[in-house]
Amino acid sequence: MYRLDGAPVERELLRRMTSVLAHRGPDGEGLYLDGPAGLGHRRLSIIDLAGGAQPIANEDRTVWVICNGEIYNFRELRAGLRARGHRFATGSDSETIVHLYEERGEDCVQDLNGMFAFALWDSSRRRLLLARDRLGKKPLYYAHRPGGALAFGSELKAVLADPEVSRAIDLEALDRYLSLLYVPAPQTIFRHVEKLPAGHLLVADARGVTIREYWDVRFADGPRRPTGEYADELRELLRRAVSDRMVSDVPLGAFLSGGLDSSAVVALMASLSDRPVVTASVGFRESDHDERPSARLVARQFGCDARESEVTAEIRDLLPKLVWHFDEPFADSSAVPTYYVSKVAREHVTVALSGDGGDELFAGYARHFWDRWEARARRLARPVLAVRALARWWPETMRGKNALLHLGMTPGDACVRKHSAELFRDAAKRSLYSEEMAGITARFDPLAIHRAYYERCDARDPLDRSLYVDLKTYLADDILVKVDRMSMAHALEVRAPFLDHRVVEFVAALPADLKLRGRTTKFILREALRPVLPGAVLAKPKHGFTAPISRWLGAELRDMAENLLFEPRAEQRGWFNPRTVKQLWADHHEGVRDASHQLWLLLVLELWCRAFVDRRPEASS
User: Fold this and answer.
1) What is the spatial distance between Cα 280 and Cα 297, in angstroms, rounded to a whole number?
2) Could you tell me which residues are beta bridge partners of residue 340?
3) Confidence of residue 397 (pLDDT cuts 50, 70, 90)
4) Which of 61, 59, 105 is nearest to 82 (CA)?
5) Are 139 and 78 in contact (CB under 8 A)?
6) What is the pLDDT of residue 293?
7) Cis peptide preceding 446, ω within 30 of 0
8) CA 42 to CA 54: how far, in whole Å?
9) Which of the pair, 154 or 403, is modelled with greater confidence?
């Protein structure tokens, strides 16, 4: 915390903010106070188990840092800093940050290869620096009261521990949640709390607060090279990224689904390790949601120490815990298997590598194929007005309506519309809202953030623009949030080699047809991994990491959902039309349509209200 008015930070408040994050760092607590500045840290010991406690200072104790995450290139940085006269007191990777800051100021972030969110206090300049890694692996929330305090933390609940922080709901953020299943940065569900976006810095001193972006991915065109050269370079970049992420003073393993991305990580780990790689896999009893058979094939291929589990726990007890860990409404149901694969991994290791980022880098989603198809078809589908008219006429029950709608849109509008979950769109959302809420939200554009990223991207190919939107929104605010919260719920650190910024920059600069060729997704990744992975894995179609929520709503969650959604307390929030919610429930349970995802979204929202609006979050843990 930093008080811009010069008032001292209260130790008890700082301790409260830190304690609510104990699940992220069960191995130790550290506090540092210097008048208007206070740094609090909870430690998960990974590097220098004996001597790496935080906060950490420079030689004369004028610069202090707390860091959540890991700096993978700390050994190289440390060697260079020592050669230039810096003295280190610990073997911690985080200590490199204070010495880099002494030399480069806030530009120290440019030298860091890692996943991190850190706060640095420069007592000589009376200045606070907050920074978040390039892709947004580690979270950072803050609330700034002009002229007053700047409260910040790795999770929103730490910021909310400050009683001065308002809990007023941001209705625009709520509207976005209904469209996206998450709240995108820089917004949070609370009007006066924000997320520091990925690749950004925040600097605060007595004059105020400034925020700037320090990194962005560029899609540059260059001379075309043979495909084999690209594949060889990509494979070596990935091997180096995996090697960097295997540095650990505690046991290390990997998530394994049997899909292309996680299998690639495990294969590269096996080639770099002199012992069997510990892998974690989970599944449900429903075969459509069970990844274990595929994972077993890969684990046998590479001689892994495979650990697996079937999700059998009571979802009724688990769901409120997940809501508490996410801090904001978050309705991506794959959080459930992610929670359990983290649990399995943590029983054997403290660090796990994952395949996160592969789909967003290499065009692994169906929407990427349709973006490219539409770009080509749009050139033939003239005039656009005729296509729009046909789309409006096309019955909702017939296939192809979305394709016609997208053909009648600009490429940017068609791209961002695919990011909207097909749950509450347009008329369906208006029907869900109460009359007052419908009036308030009529002026909102739930996809405005996605639209802005599409427009700012420097790529000429529409596919690359689509991938850029994915990196900046869905990856950062859904996938990485899900993995961070569910792994930290078990004090497990997860590292993602695909999100090494050198890999990201290399892939961004590749010709778009090397990412998606015809219907073959991740074309260049498959080519790069041919010497590493068996053909069966290379040819395996994508399989989502999903949960059987329809069954849950008809069985384990039925009474709980019915009680929560139809209690007077839920109706009195004034956001939704009770008749529409009841109709959704009836249609689903009478087999008229599958409304399980809509009901899941509303159930998560009401559970979140009970934990974060109706009572304090620390009471819900």
Assistant:
1) 13
2) none
3) very low
4) 59
5) no
6) 82
7) no
8) 8
9) 154
How many CB atoms neighbour CB 305 within 10 A? Answer: 13
378: which 2 tokens?
A: 């749009």
**Could you give phi then psi for residue 588, rounded to 5 degrees?**
-70, -45
Q: Which amino acid is at 457?
A: C
DSSP 3-state of 361:
helix
Among the listed residues 142, 122, 141, the one whose alpha carbon sits nearest the alpha carbon of residue 60? 122
Residue 308 amino acid letter = E
Q: Are strands 149-153 and 141-144 parallel, antiparallel or unpaired?
A: antiparallel
CA–CA separation, 585 vs 604, rounded Å?
A: 15
How far apart are alpha carbons 73 and 85 in whole angstroms? 19
**With b meaning 16 or more CB within 10 Å and e meaning fewer, what string describes 197-211?**
bbbbbbbbeeeebeb
* 218 pLDDT tier (thresholds 50, 70, 90): very high
Instruction: Give the chain's length.
Output: 621
The pLDDT of residue 619: 45
Tell me the two tokens of residue 4. Answer: 């811009």
Q: 186 preceded by cis ω (within 30°)? A: yes
What b/e readout covers 427-439, taking b as 16+ CB neighbours within 10 angstroms?
A: eebbebbbeebee
User: DSSP string spanning 122-178?
Assistant: ETTTTEEEEEE-SS--S--EEEE-TTSEEEEESSHHHHHTSTTS---B-HHHHHHHH
**Matching residue, tokens 């802005």:** 452
- Between β-strands 149-153 and 2-3, what pairing exists: parallel, antiparallel or unpaired? antiparallel
